[in-house]
Amino acid sequence: MPRRGERQGISIVMGYESVVPDLVRRLMMVLVLIALVTLVLWLDRAGLRDSAHPERPLELPDVVYFAVVTITTVGYGDIVPVTPRARLISTFLVTPMRIVVLILFFGTAYELVFQRYREAYRMRRLKGRLANHTIVCGYGVKGHATVEELLCFGHSPDEIVVIDASADAARDAARLGVAALRGDATKEATLEAAVIEKAIDIVVDVDRDDTTVLICLTAKHLNPEICVVAAPVSGGRMLAIATHLTHAPRFVDDILSFGRGLGFGEYRLGHADAGRTASEIPVLSGKLVLGAYHGGRTVTYERLPGLRLQEGDVVIYLQAKPESAHEG
Q: Span 262-327: which CATH code?
């Protein structure tokens, strides 16, 4: 598993989801600055003069006009400060606000142009390399643990894509070396950006059950062959067990945690193993067999003795050290 900081993944903002709120927020900031400058200039309007009509007292529209053209650096020069106090206000209040507005303008241009082109380029690279990967929707406590476990089990960071609506969560995931998309996992465009048609697994860990169901249905619609794992199902069962058993949940957690005691393993039967029982298969010797998938049905351990398994059946067993699934 790569250590934090050892390999930096990529964090990509999906489409233009965050642009409109940012633009609205920045526009509101500019309007607030203009309103503040207008208020100060209005209180000191006696220090301003209209060059075309020096004797005419300035009215509110004149002050608003002067504030806008000054703070946006247009500055036609038709209205000017003539008193020392008005000039001080223009120097020490209006000029800093003008700089802030310029920073907002250039920052917006950077985000809308340069950063978007860069993210589009990174998205193309991401789509080009993804295949047989795992998608993790939601990077909360469970999502973080899922990614770390996948890395522990030998998955390459290039085989994992995290989707989360939070920019902070996406950045945290990228620090583990995986690809991270900031977006709405319920939308087809987001899942398609994660190349779901080539993914083999999708893990859903979001806060709402209805959102979980929607993501699962969308994922199955886009890739009917994908394996879907929904956190609320397994998590709810563990919580139910914990209400009346003290040590069982901890034991199961130890089993599921890589490198901590026991672990699960899988063995898919080949042609040579067809017709044998689980106890007759050499690879399973010394392992605690828990069950099997036989003919598309789940067979629990108490029904295994005497059951003749067939080619393609999968046996689930418990072992001292987790290892990759074997193929017969």
A: 3.30.70
Query: The tokens of 170 are what?
Result: 């996406």
Calpha distance 137→135 (Å, rounded): 6
Domain boundaries, the chain: 19-125, 131-236, 262-327
> Diameter of the chain by CA atoms?
109
> For position 12, what pLDDT does the model report?
63
Residue 60: the pLDDT is: 92
pLDDT score at 270: 92
Return the bridge partners of 137, or none. Answer: 163, 204
Q: Domain 19-125 falls in which CATH fold?
A: Helix Hairpins (1.10.287)
Question: In the predicted model, what is the mean pLDDT of residues 56-84?
Answer: 87
Token pair listed for 251 = 């034991």
Look at residue 7 and tell me whether its pLDDT is greater than 80: no
Between CA 1 and CA 49 the distance in angstroms is: 70
Which ranges of the chain does DSSP label H, i.e. alpha helix?
Answer: 19-43, 60-71, 84-89, 95-109, 116-129, 141-152, 167-175, 188-193, 209-222, 231-242, 248-256
Percent of the chain with pLDDT over 70: 82
